[in-house]
Amino acid sequence: MTLPFMEIFKEWASDYDNAVFGQNPEYYDVFVNYDFMLREAAKKAEGKVLEFGPGTGNLTNLLLAKGLDVIPVEPSDEMRAIGENKTGVEFVKGDFLNFNVDQVDTIITSYAFHHLTDEEKLIALKKYKSILTENGKIIILDTIFNSKEEKQQMINHYELLGYKSLVEDLNREYYPLKETMEDIARISGYDYTSQQMNRFAHLQVLTHKKFLKPLDLVGNTPLVELTNFELNKGVRLFAKLESYNIGGSVKDRLAFNLIQSAIDHGEIRDEVVEATAGNTGIGLALACLQHDLQLTVFVPEKFSVEKQQLMKALGANIIHTPTEKGMTYAREQAEQYAKDNNAYYTNQFENLSNPLSYDQLAQEIQADVGKVDMIVAGAGSGGTFEGLARHFKEAHKVIVEPEGSILSCGEVGNHRIEGIGVEQWPVFLSKSNIDVVESISDEDGFQMVTELAKNEGLLVGSSSAAALCAALKQAQHVTDKNIVVIFPDAAERYISSNIFNIN
After folding, report:
1. Is 251 among the catalytic positions?
2. What Å distances lie between residue 429 and 33, 92, 156, 372, 483, CA to CA?
3. Beta strands in 215-323 (DSSP E)
4. Are 251 and 282 in contact (CB under 8 A)?
5. Which position among 251, 307, 397, 481 bears the catalytic label?
6. What's domain 3-207's architecture?
7. How far is the C-alpha of 474 from the C-alpha of 443, rounded, in Å?
8. According to the 3-state scheme, what is the secondary structure of 329-380?
9. Share of the chain above pLDDT 90, in %
């Protein structure tokens, strides 16, 4: 490490813990969810661990608590003394480029890799290949920036606040761009992933080999053409099969995005709360599993038994509300519970991140179909439709609801079609984006469930069937058009509600 940085370490050593634990206002945004970030980093470590720049030993203690064999390597005498006293283990004197360690399974560092220039980062990563086991990993929790513009905007923002020390850090230290880290990792022979943890920090993982994990299976669902329904000349009808997401529905996209967005903004603590009929709850349960978070969901009691069982299987705590009081009451109860228990309320029905969750869905459709003339999607929270409508601005946009929903100015009423239907207008649903509202009866929706099974071999839920009913109605008025309809989930989780009307 260079001499200027060693001098900085002397200044930082005694005040470091005050900064990371929120007592220095200048660095509050940098470390806003510090404990959570360290837990996420430690969770990824395994085997024999080489920790560079352990500083005062906060991450070291988490690694030791997991029972890992940890070798902390610290260049600063001042930091090393504090860290050894806090952890009870001996810190080795050294740094990212100067160390004497044999083969390890994990190399990890938090808030230190930015002390290296880009050239030194490249040298270091190439050097680590010789000591990492075949399936070993490098974990880097540190500040990086998504773009030059983002970095400059943040510098300008904190200059206006008078945060002199933070601005000096941002201008002096070698904080890389995300694309720079991707390039350095690629050149060094690693696969690279990055997860933003707050507005500054990213949790980066570099591996020799990359294998998909179950929770990676969100998105990139198949799109199929339906050819066994009568259509006008030149009309092609495509269905996006969202049941192929890991949790079995389009709401996996929403759930993972809502949790990640909350993490990015430092809003997540230990518990997540939502009101849901099921699919969002399943997706949230999966997303919470990824981050060791507790999920509590408020569910109207007579909704799909299968979905409730799946949520429980994934670790969710279910609190029932009276079915006759509807989803509005469930939402009120969820919000109050979150306030009483200092939990994070995802609030899918009002969270402005909801429509943004479907950007990738729109991109996948665009890549598969090319020219999209009509897009058809149901409305539960309204996020799927709004997200797609923002992308396919030139397409004819059809929103689907069951009878008993209020989008077409009807009265609130009971309906058997699950997963869609609203009791009040969603806050992020723009009326200007809606070309047509199609209200589908339970009878027509459930009949189409059976027809899809017999005609196309597709086992879908009633909201998917309702969307197809709407698409076929609109298809009667056009020729030579590409129509895309969203099928949110599959039939299996509705068998107990006699979705096929089989006696």
Report:
1. yes
2. 32, 57, 34, 21, 21
3. 223-226, 236-241, 271-275, 294-300, 317-321
4. yes
5. 251
6. 3-Layer(aba) Sandwich (3.40)
7. 19
8. HHHHHHHHHHHHHCCEECCCCCCCCCHHHHHHHHHHHHHHHCCCCEEEEECC
9. 79
pLDDT digits (tens, 9 = 90+) for 208-234: 866 788 889 999 999 999 999 999 999
Angle CA 217–110–119, to nearest 5 = 95
Q: Do domains 3-207 and 251-345 have the same CATH topology?
A: yes
Mean pLDDT across the chain, nearest whole number?
92
Query: pLDDT tens, 362-408?
Result: 999 999 999 999 999 999 889 999 999 999 999 999 999 888 787 88
Q: Is residue 158 a contact partner of residue 98, using CB atoms and an 8 Å limit?
A: no
The Cα 33–Cα 328 span in angstroms is 32
> 74-121: per-residue pLDDT in tens?
999 999 999 999 999 999 999 999 999 989 999 999 999 999 999 999
Radius of gyration over alpha carbons of the chain, in Å? 26
Mean pLDDT for 334-354 is 95
CA distance 62 to 292: 15
Distance separating alpha carbons of residues 348 and 472, to the nearest angstrom: 29
Tokens of 466: 């309702």
Give residue for tokens 């707050």: 198
Written as six digits, the tokens of 26 are: 């200048």
In tens, the pLDDT along 406-462 reads: 788 777 777 878 888 887 888 999 999 999 999 899 899 999 999 999 999 999 999
The domain ranges of the chain are: 3-207, 223-248+353-497, 251-345
Q: How far apart are CA 18 and CA 34, in angstroms?
A: 12
Given this model, what pLDDT does residue 6 score? Answer: 64
C-alpha to C-alpha distances, 495 to 159, 174, 333, 351, nearest whole angstrom: 60, 57, 28, 31
**First CA to last CA across the chain, in angstroms?**
76
204 DSSP β-pair partners: 140, 194
Write down the CATH number for the domain with range 251-345. 3.40.50.1100
3-state secondary structure of 294: strand
- The first and second tokens of residue 283, run together, are 């997706």
Q: What is the mean pLDDT of residues 330-346?
A: 96
Answer yes or no: are the C-beta atoms of 133 and 165 closer than 8 Å. Answer: no
Q: pLDDT-based confidence at 503, cuts 50/70/90?
A: very low
> Average of pLDDT values for 67-78?
95
Is 357 assigned a catalytic role? no
CA dist list (Å): 188 to 46, 120, 122, 130: 22, 12, 7, 12
Helices 164-172 and 148-160: angle between axes, nearest 10 degrees = 160
- What is the CATH topology of the domain spanning 223-248+353-497? Rossmann fold (3.40.50)
Task: Read off φ and ψ for residue 29, nearest 5 degrees.
Answer: -65, -30
- Catalytic residue, chosen from 261, 357, 463, 464, is 463
The rounded distance, in Å, linking the Cα atoms of 326 and 299 is 9
